[in-house]
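cron nightly-structures :: item 1 of 1
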Amino acid sequence: MENLKKVKETILELIYPSKCPFCGEIVSAGKKHSTEHNGICKACREKLPYIGEVRCMCCGKPLTDPAEEYCYDCTRQKHLFADGRSLWVHKDAVENAVYAMKYQNRRIYGQTFGKEMAEHFLSYLWERKITLIVPVPLHSRRKRKRGFNQAEIVAKVLSENTGIAMDAGAVKRIKATSPQKELGDKGRKRNIRGAFAVQKNVKGENIVLIDDIYTTGSTLDEAARVLKKAGAEKVYFLTVSIGQGI
């Protein structure tokens, strides 16, 4: 059975060769000059805006001053999640790749993002004793229209590569909300309030929420609120990218 699976994967790779999400370069295993890791070509990996150690202790945004502990946004508001991390700053090639995954059906990019999360944040998950991975859900109407939930794809790959359980049904989106990107800070909080409901017993769980982009944290805060109300011990987050912020 395992050999048959490998044969199928090889055939699919020949028909639909993997491409780097950031430049479109074919990164198939047989293409030696395009050295790749987790589906990212070497040239792009060297240019990607990975977030280093100088970052906000709460939301993980990159900071310009190493003496600072929190970004401007996190000094003005108290979040309901404990803390979180993101792979990259949401700009240029990263912004384009995330957009393509969500709106151009490049769901295969979620494989790359999930593997990168597992590699970069395994120690983060262990240190926080994470027991459950939960993707931020889409409303059923939006999921039907798009055909998939990008956060769920990333979360599934993260689970497969860390051994931590993932439950895509733990939280349900019960309210169809307007796109958050069209709203200001206060509008985002009003828009997302009451959007989620917990569907399983999460008492005592240390949960990491998975989403594609962190902007102000309103969506993650609301998901964290209902999970903690349902008995979750602590709630953290990981996202593919994060806005630069202030």
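cron nightly-structures :: done
The longest strand covers residues 206-214.
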